[in-house]
Amino acid sequence: MSTLSQLGINTIRTLSMDGVERANSGHPGTAMAMAPAMYAVWQHDLNFDPADPLWPARDRFVLSIGHASMLLYSTLHLTGVKDIEDGKVVDRPALTVEDLSQFRQLNSRTPGHPEYRFTSGVETTTGPLGQGCGNSVGMAMAEKWLAATYNRPGYELFNYHVTVFCGDGDMMEGVASEAASTAGHLGLGNLTWVYDSNQISIEGSTDLALTENVADRFKAYGWHVQVLDDGNDVDAILAGLKAARAVKDRPSMIVLKTVIGYGAPKKAGTASAHGEPLGVAEIKGAKAAYGWPEDAPDFFVPEGVREHFAEGIGKRGAAASAEWRALFAKYKAEFPKEAAEIELILSGGLPEGWDKDIPVYPADAKGVASRASSGQVLNAVAKNLPWLVGGSADLSPSTKTDIKGEGSFQPEKWGGSYAGRNLHFGVREHAMGSICNGIALSGIRTYGSGFLIFSDYMKAPIRLSAIMELPVLYIFTHDSIGVGEDGPTHQPIEQLAQLRATPEVMTIRPSDANEVAEAWRTLIPLNHKPAVLILSRQNLPTLDRTKYAPASGLAKGAYVLASCEGKPDVILMASGSEVSLVVDAYEKLTAEGIKARVVSVPSFDLFEAQDQAYRDEVLPPDVIGRVAVEQASAFGWDRYTGIGGAIIAMHGFGASAPAALLQKKFGFTPEAVYEAGKAQAARSTAK
């Protein structure tokens, strides 16, 4: 290895150490251990252009060990990655030395864990361990789908590789195991995980909790596995990376044995090197071990280091990106339709007429389950949005999320193709969420589906979708105690409140087939936030929209479905299947001369986004008689009912019985809503 190569490695180490020390917070040890591997990947292996970090065919690098963020920040600085502003590359560095010195500080470009959108060159937000691993599987799936869908003979537009740095913590997280199993089944030969096996976690040696043979586990998953015993041997690492790329029919794992805090005289190989600053003495000793100038200031970059990276990844990446853009120009001339689709995918746009086949449903007292109407609308949208792909956690017959006639995303040996639009995640809800995030990072529109109760398994990836502003659609069915005989383990209670409480997640629970159609019409254009669609198992009556207000009111989150003339004495409000209950009560109250109003509230999030005038128009502040009905936790409804209003909701975990008996047991009957409405009307008129 050349002197400049070693100098580049040690500069990554020292910048990372200095950043953590200046912040008095962070994780220096992993950066010190993995600097040689980072150098090998970025300088010699990664097909990435620092001057064009949005180049569509670039290789992706994922730091799943997000606590070692200074390892990535130091590398982004040294390789000269350009900044991004408003979705375009600008001629200034993504990170300066000053940015490195502001590690973990307020408003800095170097937050404690890598944040997508905040720092150019960061491909995904990592931090919760295992999520980056899951994202990488989605990224690899996206490349396979793009290649199978858009590549043509002589035009290999998409052939990028995904490389991940992961660690002992990732290997312990269930989401990484779910994702690894999925990747092995799918034969993702465009994916390499480099496992930093330093055998240290916060509590001490990983022998406290992790004693399995990880290499053998991954072999059982169907991965190609290599074990490298020296994390400082750059030549061996490069050979391992090359061998991994050569394996085309399965993902690769490189188990890399490293020493955490390498070079620190007392803390190397110890837990104290993991999650706390080294201290002045240890830094001084480590720098001496690296042959660092004794009088060098903090954040010192020796002469020639930046130029060395420019001659490596800089020159290689510039040539590759220029070649790709020239190829795409020729492709565009020969395949204009496909090129236009690619450009829309990359820009987050939608094709003209994407919603033209969304159906309108006639009134029907029997109705249809909202999961079924959603499946129909999904297929109507998918016909005109060819890059909509998705699937379920082994539940598509129940969630109705198959795209008809579009095949399964599978390798040929399992009877599918990588151009298939139906994804099969297996019973792996957690991985499904993180994989969907990885797919969405490519620009492909994607969805994952399951039962609402199992959204609990997906809390972390849904939250990360929101943090990254990714337009992932989560379709959850079996939304209430209407699930019936499956009992409390399958009857969601608190999940709606949890989803509504998550910032920047658009949650919608439609009341009938036409609200379902409008929900899809509202959700698909959202290209900077995730959406959650909450659907029923049981049939919901399709309201007569010549009698009641049009379902287009859904776009505002809550709307007046039916109302008396003038000021009402009572407002009945509900979401989803309970809207038909309040409509029945409204009709009875109205027949008795009580002035009532029905408000459908499919989305708190959309309603809260409206101006105060509209909200007051729907829910007049001077009307205190109010009833809210929802087969879920009452949490949150008091903002609309007020302190004295009535809330008919769940206060326990349900029971196992036929749905009709459960409705009666827990008070979700027209009679119960009528009585509550009558009492609230009396309260209002007695004011």
From TrEMBL:
InterPro entries recorded: THDP-binding, Transketo_C/PFOR_II, Transketolase-like_C_2, Transketolase-like_Pyr-bd, Transketolase_bac-like, Transketolase_BS, Transketolase_fam, Transketolase_N
GO MF term (any one): transketolase activity
GO biological process, one term: pentose-phosphate shunt, non-oxidative branch
Cofactor: Co(2+); thiamine diphosphate; Mg(2+); Ca(2+)
Cofactor stoichiometry and binding remark: Binds 1 thiamine pyrophosphate per subunit. During the reaction, the substrate forms a covalent intermediate with the cofactor.
Chain residues that bind substrate: 27, 274, 371, 398, 478, 486, 490, 537
A Gene Ontology cellular-component term: cytosol
Enzyme Commission number(s) from the entry: 2.2.1.1
Gene3D superfamilies in alphabetical order: 3.40.50.920, 3.40.50.970
Residues forming the catalytic site: 429
UniProt entry keywords in alphabetical sequence: Calcium, Magnesium, Metal-binding, Thiamine pyrophosphate, Transferase
Site keyed Important for catalytic activity: positions: 27, 274
Pfam short name (any one): Transketolase_N
Binding site for Mg(2+): 168, 198, 200
Residue ranges annotated for the Transketolase-like pyrimidine-binding domain, each copy included: 368-542
SMART domains on file: Transket_pyr
Catalytic activity, reaction form: D-sedoheptulose 7-phosphate + D-glyceraldehyde 3-phosphate = aldehydo-D-ribose 5-phosphate + D-xylulose 5-phosphate
Subunit structure: Homodimer.
Family: Belongs to the transketolase family.
Protein name: Transketolase
Gene that this polypeptide is encoded by: tkt
